[in-house]
Design a protein that fits this description.
Blueprint: H1 11-59, H2 73-83, E1 91-104, E2 107-110, E3 122-130, H3 138-143, E4 145-159, E5 165-168, E6 174-175, E7 181-182, E8 192-201, H4 207-214, H5 221-225, E9 230-237
């Protein structure tokens, strides 16, 4: 009878094969990794750019539940802009699933069901909220997020010595055209507030992160969130 010997792979051959796969994988990541990051960043910029329109509308709107806190939409915009240089009162922008059967104060409540038909059970809505404890609906809205959440820092554009505009963190208040500081919209004589908006992508779309590590970041936007995706000059009129 003839006997056949089946020979397996040696340890050297296995190690050689693993090395070849590792080299190919490293090459693949080196070539396509940056492209993937670039595509993701481009998509995020497009999303943030669309949400900028929602921010402009929000700063010119006084909602029913805000009537007791602000006299006019301009008063609201003044306070939001002058206080957004701190992360504990910054602005968050995002899209969420809004329940078509629940509308409170002109806003769709969050749709938290796992299954649902778009257009019938829920609509994707834009939300603009300030991290100041005023929004009781922020937690459920973040549970119904569609896409990424963005944080916005708004800094007033003030004339510098060369006649240009410089983004300035003015703290509590803004600077009028006469160079005088104003702590309220009534003290602010100008008819227009020009400001720069810096858009940052949030690393975690969770209420715990927003009210925890993010809110504790103070004025250090870059240290907490990295570099902004993009910046845009905007204005709000009285």
């Amino acid at each position: 009878m003839s006997q056949k010997n089946s020979r397996g792979f040696t340890l050297l051959e296995v190690l050689l094969a693993i090395s070849v796969v590792a080299i190919l994988l490293t090459t693949f990541l080196a070539v396509f990794g940056p492209a993937t990051n670039t595509i993701r960043r481009a998509v995020s910029v497009q999303d943030a750019d669309r949400l900028a329109t929602a921010l402009e509308k929000e700063l010119s709107t006084l909602r029913e539940d805000e009537i007791g806190r602000f006299e006019t939409p301009f008063s609201k915009a003044f306070e939001w802009i002058s206080s957004s240089s701190s992360l504990d009162s910054a602005i968050v922008l995002f899209n969420y699933r809004g329940d078509t059967s629940q509308v409170i104060n002109g806003k769709l409540e969050a749709y938290l069901e796992q299954n649902g038909e778009p257009g019938r059970d829920y609509l994707v809505q834009s939300a603009v909220r300030r991290l100041s404890g005023e929004n009781k609906d922020l937690e459920p809205l973040l549970e119904a997020v569609e896409g990424r959440v963005f944080v916005v820092r708004m800094r007033q554009l003030v004339r510098d010595g060369n006649g240009g505009l410089t983004a300035t963190d003015s703290g509590n208040g803004l600077v009028g055209g006469d160079g005088e500081g104003a702590t309220s919209a009534e003290e602010f004589d100008d008819a227009v507030i020009t400001f720069q908006t810096d858009f940052y992508a949030l690393p975690a779309n969770s209420f715990q992160y927003v009210t925890g590590p993010l809110a504790r970041g103070g004025n250090d936007f870059e240290g907490t969130l990295g570099s902004p995706l993009f910046s845009r000059a905007m204005a709000v009129r009285r």
